[in-house]
Amino acid sequence: MQFRSIIRIVGLLLALFSITMLAPALVAFIYRDGEGFPFVLTFFLLLSGGAMLWFPNRSYRHELKARDGFLIVVLFWTVIGSAGSVPFMLSEQPNMSVTDAFFESFSGLTTTGATVIVGLDNLPKAVLFYRQLLQWFGGMGIIVLAVAILPVLGIGGMQLYRAEIPGPVKDSKMTPRIAETAKALWYIYLALTIACASAYWVAGMSMFDAISHSFSTVAIGGFSTHDASIGYFNSPAINFITVLFLFISACNFSLHFAAFASGKLHPGFYFKDPEFRSFILIQVILLAIVFGMLLNHDVYDTKFEAFNQAIFQTVSISTTAGYTTTGFSEWPLFLPVLLLFSSFIGGCAGSTGGGMKVIRILLLSLQGSRELKRLVHPRAVYTIKVGNKALPQQVWMRFGASSRHTLWFLCFVCWR
């Protein structure tokens, strides 16, 4: 393995990440909340650390192999997650321990959405903005952003891209050059963020809240600037905007790129994709069950309120965002459990959503159907098709009948 080349690249990535500290420092200056110094100090610390890793190894330039790419991704997320905790430890508000700071940083960058901070409404704007920014960078993946920039620094990015991107999409580039693919993904990501922030602002959010929530919405992270999450605004319009952009962000970004490139931004184009159709079907079934149960148990006074809460909670939880508008104390216990298990599926491959991804569930179901048919006709040869395309055996074996699903459920059972 090219260890010195790997250290050089990690150093460059760490120096690149240090630039993100300037944005919350600027927010602190604008709102004069007195929390700009921790971010400025962190900027210089990370920039110096990155330079220390890069400078002794600057002359080592070797082609990366697949295993080098995987190691860089693991090291990078470990190093960046640790580096991201520094502002939390240096800030006076919130006064966080080392453990809590690490937890908050990794939760933000991995778009997990869990938090150890209480009293969000009283925190400095710079800290709130930084939490949202962590999720935004983690949503699309800082590695994908780096792949778009690294060629300028003389570093190839294909192995990093393959190690970072989930699902079958990693084996097909949307453009001839991998750097252009990464740029295209981030252009779409940025455009959705701007559109989401604008919609939030028009719907009644302040500019700060609109930008902050657009970061975590498009990243499907779930962080908020208020303890009550989206419920703080008590606005059906904001709820529906959140649902819309969570849904868009949970779709495969390669599909968005194809729609933009072909100029076919209409539902008919998207419905040609079998994974998108499966995703729609799952959401419709979940919504019908939740809405029907809420009406049956008279949880809300009006049908509109019941539908508003049903569609928001369904999309928010099933896409792994985790935004909330209401408690579940009056809901039938069956519904929160159902939505919890729906989050196992999550969004589509190549999206910012979590979970196992819809394409893997689709492949598992197709493979299960194939095995049932082989019980009836043992000598028959059946191919697995996604849409009209027959998948090679190595693809459905890798993404369908994979031991990762067994590990996924074992982790859940052990956690419970």
Outline the structure in words.
With 416 residues, this protein is mainly alpha-helical. The protein has 20 helices and two strands. The chain has helices spanning 3-18, 22-31, 36-54, 66-83, 86-90, 98-109, 125-140, 142-149, 158-164, 178-203, 207-218, 236-249, 253-262, 267-270, 274-296, 303-318, 334-342, 358-376, 393-399, 403-415; strands spanning 385-386, 389-390. It has a two-stranded antiparallel sheet with strand order 1-2. A hairpin with a 2-residue loop joins strand 1 and strand 2. Helix 10 (178-203) packs across helix 11 and helix 12 (236-249) runs parallel beside helix 16 (303-318). The longest helix has 26 residues, at 178-203. The radius of gyration is 22 Å and the shape is globular.
Characterize the overall form: globular
Count of helix runs: 20
Q: Roughly how much helix do the residues carry, as a percent range? A: 55-70%
Structural class: mainly alpha
Strands of the widest sheet, in order across it, are 1-2
**Which value, in Å, is the CA radius of gyration?**
22 Å
In quaternary terms, these chains amount to: single chain
Q: How can the largest sheet be summarized?
A: 2 strands, antiparallel
Ranges where pLDDT stays below 50 over 5 or more residues in a row are 152-161, 167-171
Percentage beta strand: under 5%
Compressed to H and E, one letter per element, the order equals: HHHHHHHHHHHHHHHHHHEEHH
Average pLDDT metric: 83
Report the span from N to C terminus: 39 Å
The total count of strands amounts to 2
